[in-house]
Every structure is written in structure tokens, then in C-alpha cells.
Amino acid sequence: MDQGGATCRRLSSGLKIIHLPLAGLNTVSIGLLSGAGARLEAEDEIGSSRILEDWIWRREQKQEDIHDILADFGANLKTSSNIEWTRHWTTVLCNQFEPVFKLFLHDILEFDLCTNTFAASKEYTVTLASKRRQEPNAYVMDVLREKMSGGTTIGRSTVGLVEDMDKLDLPKIQNVYERLYAPNNCVVAVVGGIPKDRMGKLLDEIVEAGDVQNSPVVPQEESPSWQSCVHSIEQEGRLVHLGAALPCVSCSHPDFFAFAVLSQALGGGDGSRLFESIRQKKGLAYQVRSSLMSFRDTGLLTFYLATGPNFVSWAASAIAGEIKHIRNKGISREEVNAAKNQLLNQMVLRSESTASRMNTLLTASWYPGYPGTLTAMEEAISAVTPKAIQSALMNVAPAAAMGLVTLGPVSASALVLDQ
Amino acid sequence: MAYSEWKYPNGLNIITEDMPSMASVTVGFFVLSGAGHESLEEIGIAHALEHLLFRGSLLYPKGTMSPEFTQLTGTMNAFTTWEYTCFYSRSTPEVLSDAFLPLMDMIRQPLLREEDFNLEQNIIRRELSRQLEEPRSRLTHALHQSVYPGRLGKLLIGHDEDILQLKAPDLREFHKRHYIPSNILLVISGRLEKCIGLDSCLQALEDWDESIIPVELEQPLIAQPEVVNLTQKHSELCYSLWAWSLPPLEDKEHYAVHLLCTLLGDDNYIGSRLYNKIVAPGFAQQITCVYTVLGGKGLFKIYGLTSAPQLEWIREKMLVELQQIKAGMITPREYNRAKQKVKTQMALDASGSHSRSVSIAQAWMRHKRMVPLSELLALIDQISIDDLQNIIEQYFSGREFFEIYG
């Protein structure tokens, strides 16, 4: 199940196409990642990438509408985004591959920015932005990143803010599209039951489109220096949602996998330290998670849980206490090995999904240094030692530079940390 | 995909399906009792038991969420529905028995300790708090309250007072009655050829005796619905749910109504009737259709998300579209598109060992036998435009219609 069999071809337009054939599957996933995100937008363009994420698929209602044709093939379209990229992908039966692939690329890279549907897309995106508050997990993480960013572009909202989007007009978004959806600022991955020769033949047929750019658009500012914070968004309810974060590294940094193993050991699921101490032993939360939020030049090690207002300080202290303990005393070899095994298991299980493998290829292609094959990833995880984790923590987050944000019936002044 | 199906003398039903291109294998124990089998005094017990089983069993007293298990077994999890409760593991085939044996033991001989239950009660109440924050979950619950008079009208996991009144001995009693081999379906799907220890795992099931004489399971209450129009506060962003009460459709009609859902408005991003008429022009942000059967009653549900001023217009537009389908205005193109979408979705479900195990179990519960994917695809192919039209004509007129906004 390695991804070592992947091949890459760059078209003259600059568009990079990666193909991984997997024998025996009758489905294929096609994905395109563009460097469109809030971090790459100018001040007066903020929110454009999110509107484009929807607008690209919202065509004029005419008889031979392209997106209806895609739907005729049973194409199941999905999108996702963060502040540095936007992904569009679909999974179809292999016998529908060629026409869907052509239409998919055509729809995204030769989008005609139809004016009739602009208002609908803007309205939709504004709704998503205002709905964000009803997704407490995501919302506390947005606010946490913003508060810790010290006002730099890395703190921008993933889904956009209603007030920013209200100011956007069509020419501004057109400008963002032409800049960030240029073929050279995009990468395509195809994973599934399509053999190499079939893919090669198709690529030979493709008529290339779009202007050539010299290089992908990447954030120009210096890596931000994360700031600690304690912030509360007070609202009525039974639960307090707690987001906490610690400065971390980018996904191409040599310490990335040390943090990945640490995150797994702390709150990567059943059996992790925080799962045991907060959920299993105290019964204080239904879900306790930690994960890595990674960008091109930096990252955060994040924690999330939801508990009652009387327990949130205790839970926040428990998180801070575990980090302090590992920073000062280290972590046992057994615990590191257990976390590594869990990560390796998850990696193999995720590799079953063509969409998941396609997304890994897109990430590896977009972030230089991120391992693109299962073997490379396995090696990177296996190489992590207890010592490497402790020194990574001491190097990147030497002090208690944590950020904390709560959403629920508790004030910031009521948050008292033991650590 | 090659499959086997058999039944042990103790009544346990087993299906295995080999999926050679998979990296994993899923073991799913489907206990054919869920929240719908609870009495009004037992509200929340099926879900509470699902939680408590992970806390320890006779041979594995530390439970299957402890660190020594989780590093070996991949994913181990469970979920409770109205009709059944599923416990499953998804692992690499080489470690199948490391996952299988603890999973079997926790279902067969859980410890169900009082002190563990006290902790789980707290956890379940946090889970409840999360559910009460989710708009779609609240809409569905409001609909069930209106449609079903008995247990099915309450929350699946129960409210605080229900959860708090449960005691560990109640859970033991429920376990004793329902967690018996003849009330369980075991589905093993994935890369079977690479499985180590599969035969001995299956052998271990043979001596699983019925601990008591199987009792007739309680039948869920059949609802006596009334026409209800629940109108809550209209906020700027409005979640809505329109639902029609239908009979529990069987055989071809069952698949036809699901195809109708896809044609009208599925989760897919593009190309459905209501998406093209309502969402794409910007009148709503979301419209999806779902058909469910519960307690001898079918519900055809349309969920919407829009701004409050658009709500009335959308409601009218949606009813007009249903009228048009009733009048036979379905184009061959959209009919074929819906079929293609359903087939693609089935292929996607069949491309993961876990999703496949759930699909196999759900089809088994409907047909009381293994239904191969090829047979399901053939059933979809047999559905005609007239079948879709008939569904609306026969079952939507004069039926109870519910509207819930919030």
C-alpha cells in the first residue's frame, strides 16, 4: 500500500499532475489543491477564496450546464479549505474517469466567473461564516489562532468574516482567482483504479489552459511569533468548549513527527494521557482531542474538549500540567512506542481510502519536505524517540506560552490554572 | 466480492465478505436491539450499555479503551441506533484476533461495574449537552416528539433525568435479555485472506450459549400521529424540517423512495432537483432529503437551511416541485443521474471495510439474509420513472405533514 508508485507530470501551463494507480479498485478520486486561502489575500480581498470555493461550482442555469454534466456521471463533489489552500475533489467509478477528469479541470481552471451566480455564492459563504459559531469546536479554534497570532495574517478566519465579505465585489474576487487559481499555483492528484497507460493517454489529449506563472504564491511575511492568551467568549449553555494551543512547527520541519507522536500520546484518542485523565478517570468530557494545525512556516499543537463550567479550569490545568511534565521530565519509551504504533495503524487504515491518499499526495506536493509515500512517513514516525520529543518541546515551546479560549458560561477571570 | 453466510446452533448469524483490495478488516457485532427496544422506564439504557461495555469484561477487566489495547487494535468503537447497537473494530488483518477476542468478550461477559457506570453517566450527560447544541439533531427530535407518542418520541440517549435514574443492575438485566447469540449478527469484511487467527476466533463463538431462554423482543410502539405544526422563534438563519408520514415501504418501493431522495436533494453537492431550483440560485444554503423507517412508520424528511425571509417561498417552491414529480415531470436525464449517483455511493460504501460491514448488516436486517452488492445494483436498475412518480402519488397526498422551524 505504499505510494511509491506515484508518478508526476508537469504540463506546460505549470499545472502539476500526480497519479497513483491502485490495482483492483473500481473507484478513482480526483483532487485539485490551489493555493487560495485567506493568508494569501490582500487586506481588501479577505474572504475571496472562500467565495471562490463555492462560486467555481455554481454555474449559470442553462440547458447544458457543466456541473449538471458532472452530476450525470455520479460525481460526488467535495471541497475543504484552510487559510493557505483550497481543495476540490470528487470520487467516481473508474468507467466514468476520463470525461469527469476533463470536466473537473475545466470547471476549476477555466472558470468563467459568471456574474449571475455571484450574489448566490456570496450569500452562501456569508451564511457559512455566520453559522461557524454553531460549530463550537471549529469556532474556538478560529478564535484561539486569531488571538495567538498577534494580528498577523496567520490569524485570519478559515471561513471568513461576514464584515469582510460584505465589502467584496466581483473585480476583487476575479483578481484573486486569476492570481491564486493559475495552473502553476495548483496541483492535481489522481488516486484509484486507473492504470498508468490510461492516465498517460489522457494527459496527452489535454488541451492546456490558463496563464503560466513563475512560481506558486506563498506567504511573504516572516513566520509569526505566537503569543499566549486567555480569552473567553461568554454565552449561555450547559457546556464550556475549551480550545488550548502551544506553539509548534510546520509540517516540513524536522521536529514535525516528534510533535505528531506527542499529540497522539497526549490526546490522540482512546488510551491517550488526557483521554485517560479527563474522560476515563474523572468522567468530565465526552471527547478530548489533540491535533496538529500546520502551515507552511509554523504550526500549533492544539487541544479541544467540552466540559461543565465548574471543571474547565481543572481540565485546562491538566493539559498545561501534562505538557510541563513532559518538558521537564520527558516521556517514557513505552508511551512513545504506543503512540507510534497507533499513528502507524491509522496511517495504514487511512490508506484504504482513495480520497485520503489523494489528499496526502496533495499535501506532500504543496508543502515541500512533507513525506509523500507511506514508507517515508513510516520511517519518519518510527525514528521519533522520547528524547526527540522532549527536545522538540523545549526548543519550540520552552515556556508556558499557551493560548486558551473558552466558549460557554464562564468568564476569562474565572479560569484559574494550577500550572 | 466472495462472501459466506451461516448460523451457529446457538442462533448467532455470521456473514464474512472478502475484499482483497482492502488494507483492513472490520469486525462488527450488531446487537439487534437498540433504543427502540427500551420501555419508558429504561430510556437511555441501550446507549448507556454501549458506553459501559468498554469499561471492562471478565477476561479483559481493564477495558478496551486502555492504552495497551489501543496501540494494537486500530479503531474500536460503537454506536447505538433505534433498531440496533453496533460494536466494531477496524484493524490490519494481521492483528485481527487482538481486536476480535476482547470485542467478543466485552459483548459476552462485561463486568458492568457500578463505579464505572457513575463515571459513564457523567460522560453521557456531556454527550447529551453536545447533541442539544446541534440544530439538525434538535429538529429531528422535535419531529419525533410530534410523530411518536411513546419511547420513540424521546431522545435516543435520554435526558438528564433518564440517564441519572438508570442503575448498573438495570443495565445488567438489559444485557442479559438482549445480548444473546440469537439476537446478534456478526459481520466480518475486509482483507480476509491476510487475517491471522480468523478460524480460531470464529470457533470461540460456537460455545457461546444462550444464557437464558431468548425472550420475544419488545416491539417498538406504533405511532398514532397527529398533524402538528411546530413553529419556533424565527432567527436570521433558519433551520427547517418538513416531513411526511409514509408507511414503511418494502422491497422495490423501499429502494424507489431512496432514489427519489437522491433525485430531489441528496448530500452530493450538485445536480439534484431541489439543489438546482432552490440552492443554486441562492434561495437556500442547503436542502437534503432523507427517508427513514422507525416504529412501523416511514418518514420522508426534507431538511433546509435558509434565511428566515426566504422560508415561505422555499416551502412553496418545494411543494410545487413535488407536485411536478407527481404529474410525471421527471426527465430521463435527472432519473439516470440519480441512479448513477446512488451506484457511485454504493461503490464508495463498498470501498471501505467498515462502511461495507454496516451496509451488509443493514441489508441483512431488511431482507434477513446477505444481499450482495450486485443484487442491490440490479434492484436500483429495475426502478422506473413511474415508480418514483407513484411514490409521490400514493403516499404524499392526504398524509400527515409536519413542519418544524428553529
UniProtKB/TrEMBL annotation, chain A:
Family matches, as InterPro entries: Metalloenz_LuxS/M16, MPP/UQCRC_Complex, Peptidase_M16_C
Similarity comment text for this entry: Belongs to the peptidase M16 family.
Domain Peptidase M16 C-terminal per the UniProt entry, residue ranges: 168-343
Coiled-coil ranges (or none): none
Name this polypeptide is given: Zn-dependent peptidase
Leader sequence residues: none
Organism listed in the record: Paenibacillus silagei
One Pfam family this sequence matches: Peptidase_M16_C
From TrEMBL, chain B:
Peptidase M16 C-terminal domain location: 167-341
Domain Peptidase M16 N-terminal: 14-155
UniProt xrefs under InterPro entries: Metalloenz_LuxS/M16, MPP/UQCRC_Complex, Pept_M16_N, Peptidase_M16_C
Similarity-based family: Belongs to the peptidase M16 family.
Protein name (record): Zn-dependent peptidase
